[in-house]
Specification:
447 residues, Rossmann fold, 2 domains, 6-stranded parallel sheet, globular, binds adenosine monophosphate
Length: 447
Amino acid sequence: MNTFEELSLSPSIMTAIKSKGYANPTEVQEKSIPLILAGHDIFSTAQTGTGKTAAFALPILQLMGKKKLPHRVVRTLVLAPTRELAIQIADSFHQYGKHTGLRGTVIYGGVSQYNQVHDIRRGVDILVATPGRLLDLMNQGIVHLSSVEFLVFDEADRMLDMGFINDIKRIVEKVPQKRQTMLFSVSLTPEIKKLASTMLKNPSTVEIKPAPHNKINVNESVYFVEKPFKHNLLLHLFQEQSIRHALVFTRTKHGADKLVKLMVNGGIKAQAIHGNKSQASRQKALLDFKERKFSFLVATDVASRGIDVKELSHVVNFDIPEQADSYVHRIGRTGRAGASGTAISLCSSEEKRLLFDIQRFTGNTIPTQEHPFRNIQKSGHHHETTSRVEHTQNSRHHPTENQSNNNHSTGPISENGFSRGHKNIHRKSHHSYSTNKFHSKSSWHKR
Ligand code: AMP
């Protein structure tokens, strides 16, 4: 099976898929959609970038559409670790569900609850939420989960890493036992297996290999360079390879700010997003980056979750991530759903152990690239670097430059249902929407 037509999706969903321009289902979609439509619980190792959002959103929307209720109640709950990912998922539901008449909203912390409460009170069928804000609104008696039929845990491993386990337990206590549950997690730690065993009933397993060796087509390379010379090397690479648009990861918020300063001093337009920035400024930076108002977005791991920039050509690991699966997540920002991308990692001698772990995790040796800053020690002296993780390859990258921005629409949606950013609904026709903006609050809806 390799076409959407063979997946028995309804005409309203097929119309949405067509307007997204998807030719064929991705592996996780091909495997999951029939199982979800048949009513199975799912335990999947698919990660962001493989098309997994559609893998659960499309069949859920279809199943929801089969049963009409007299009032809008939360029938689908999607839990995600970060606001960015929650917004991304809500945006996907909004796009895939625009012809279904279903309505949804997204809630997350760090912003006033006022608009979120307003949207919920108007009634939603689908709720995408980060656990903390959801629990807060449940405790205030604003959100009720007694009608939930579909429960999705997205990036469950990340939610556990972020300490959400108790919140999750409290939330799930309020969700009916009789439900269909889908859990997505890249890593299969004992904690995740335990969570899956308590949350899922006879789940079908959908195993999707880590992205770089599966759907994501990323040209990876590592540059060995000592820390004080990393930013010089970065500026050199940007120039030498004419890189115009890159997502750059640092380990710390401070590191992100510092790098932005150095880049701006070097004449390069860059901005940072991380946990210390307000939600509004993070969304603004993300939008401006997507619209190519500046070239380099510097992000920490948490802030990067859910970032989906269409045709992002380059991801740079300015610092090697401490967790091997973060590497996979990071480079999964480029080369998405079949497009090709380039992932550049800058590795100091202190970080070689981390690089080794990553290579063991992915089962893939990352080719080493030569460069003018390679053999300069921290003191400024040249030296020879050798390592068991190295494997030199002198081929040069050929960056792609013609990328387009991702058109994230958040205004009211079509004639019947989903919309995001309800203020715009009143300003725009129901038939046109495309504000190209993330809103701090959003609801897709309006009949
Ligand atoms: P996700 O893993 O859900 O974050 O999706 C990653 C990217 O793949 C998003 O930009 C989707 O719009 C895109 N995508 C999802 N399904 C398909 C498909 N069948 N064909 C092409 N692109 C897709």
